[in-house]
Design brief:
alpha+beta; Aminopeptidase; 8-stranded mixed beta sheet; about 35% helix; GNAT_dom
């Protein structure tokens, strides 16, 4: 197993790669993506209102890199055609149980192109191959159709509903919980060979 802090970038295909954030260089672009679509993001991402400036985003990226160094989480910038378009993360890495939960967001002009689906596949490959995770989880508000679709397209199994589990701007929402096991991921990848 590679050290978690070695990873700097991960190529998914000729157009998409994931990279450890560079706070001073990446914060402005990420803030612009968030700020240009706050109404949409606010619906499903409760942290959006805390990002009020480029400096807030830079501080956030610095903190996630500290947590990356401590092997607590893994936040990666999504690049598409040499442009920053969003982020994907293992929000919490549970080393005792070898599991992680995924979060992701994408700028409005890049949705509907399969980028998030490929980014999820990429971070799963990192998690199962490099970090030897046994289980990866996606939680999605039941009314977030796009996020639920991403989980299904990547072979995640719906385990059930967590009732009123996610506090969003308009109150508590039920969440679907999905998981993918390392054994299932291996089976999916063997079939593709």
């Amino acid at each position: 197993m590679r050290s978690w802090s070695i990873l700097m970038s991960y190529k998914i295909d000729s157009e998409i790669f994931l990279a450890v954030p560079r706070p001073r260089k990446d914060a402005e672009r990420l803030f612009q993506l968030i700020d240009s679509d706050r109404g949409f993001f606010r619906k499903f991402l409760p942290w959006v209102d805390a990002i009020e400036s480029y400096k807030n985003e830079e501080d956030f990226l610095s903190n996630v890199n500290i947590n990356f160094g401590k092997e607590l989480s893994l936040n990666l910038v999504i690049w598409y055609q040499q442009e920053i378009v969003g982020m994907i993360s293992f929000n919490h890495l549970d080393k005792l149980n070898n599991l992680a939960d995924i979060g992701y967001w994408l700028g409005k002009d890049y949705r509907g192109r399969g980028i998030t689906t490929k980014a999820v596949k990429g971070i799963c490959n990192i998690g199962f191959s490099d970090y030897d995770l046994n289980r990866i989880i996606i939680r999605a508000a039941i009314d977030n159709a796009a996020s639920n679709a991403v989980a299904k397209k990547n072979g995640f199994k719906r385990e059930g509903v967590l009732r009123k589990n996610e506090k969003l701007c308009d109150g508590y929402h039920d969440e679907n919980i999905y998981s993918l096991l390392q054994s299932e991921w291996r089976e999916i990848n063997v079939r593709k060979i």
